[in-house]
Design brief:
Elements: H1 23-36, E1 37-38, H2 47-51, E2 57-61, H3 67-75, E3 80-84, H4 88-101, E4 106-109, H5 113-120, E5 126-132, H6 150-159, E6 160-170, H7 173-184, E7 189-191, H8 194-200, H9 208-215, E8 221-227
Parallel strand pairs: 1-4, 2-3, 2-5, 3-4, 5-6
Antiparallel strand pairs: 6-8, 7-8
Length: 228
Amino acid sequence: MSTQSIVYRENRSFVRREGRLTPGQQRALDTYWVRYGLLPQEQPFAWDSVFGRTAPRVLEIGFGNGDSLFQMAQHYPAYDFIGIEVHRPGVGHLLLRAAEADLSNLRVFCADAVPLLKTCFADASLARAQIFFPDPWPKKRHHKRRLIQPGFVALMAAKLQRDGLLHIATDWAQYAEHIQATLAASPDFTPLAEHSLAELALERPVTKYEQRGKRLGHAVYDLLYRHC
């Protein structure tokens, strides 16, 4: 599928509530952005050149403070990881951890995901995409702001390779139902059985949002789909 045919009316799926940068986070942005940071551009990145090798690429949208993405990049050196996050404190936190561990398989954008997907990623350029605990926008009048919408699903399908995997996790039951219904309506994805998650998904570290949800008694839904 070509993104040329995708019409997607963008509703922001996030609100910038950026807290104060700590001195360490600001220092990390000043010092390590040149190594790990990427700026949006009007043509797809040549990822083999960016990473200096050919490897399966994993995109994470909305990595928060970056701890789980850092752990995955550290635990799976055979994969190259690309993170997208709009909040600079989280980006600074991740850059500091990445530099301390001298990671070479991680790059980061600090920008809105949808425009980046349209311009910076060639079609069929990703082996996996993961979206862990996106904002559920629980109020009905805000449901249009949810990231997982038909247009976004079509865009994501264009960027994934054939048989590529989409892994979404949420701790909101109604959002899980919405995600399942949206993906079920897509001709581009097939849901995988629960046992396939353990077999095919990269091990997902527990995020701080997941911990908070569990303290509130929320069940966690891991939803895995194959691009067909």
